[in-house]
Amino acid sequence: MRRSLILRITLLAATAGWLITGCGATPKPSSEAPTQTVSSPHTFSHPRDVHVKGHVTAISSTSLTITTKKDKTKVFVLTPHTRFTSQHKPIAVTSVKVGNVVMVKGQHQKGHQLVALIVHVS
């Protein structure tokens, strides 16, 4: 009788522990909204995305030319939607000068042109 009682108590404790930890239960969906925020429509990568780092060799109101460490020249088209930043703060296009080191996120568009989405000045 004593063994039977000990066995029942052990089985009951194991079952209670299993239920408390949620083993075998399916996860419940969270009622909270995702915490990820998107600060720009250009935040996520796309297969056409291009990231280039180099020195500014020419800049105008419509184009930005940079030269990479491997001496490759890339010309980006600037649009009214192109954002310019420095130290994670917005800057004016006029703040970008020849010789600045920049990181450009752009996209290949129809006609094989590169359009600058974000220009970050180091």
From TrEMBL:
PROSITE patterns: PROKAR_LIPOPROTEIN. Residues 1-25 form the signal peptide. InterPro entries: DUF5666. The keyword Chloroplast does not apply. It comes from the Bacteria. Residues 53-117 form the DUF5666 domain. Residues 26-47 are annotated as: Disordered. Keywords: Signal. Residues 28-43 have a biased composition (Polar residues). The keyword Signal applies. This is DUF5666 domain-containing protein. It comes from Sulfobacillus thermotolerans.
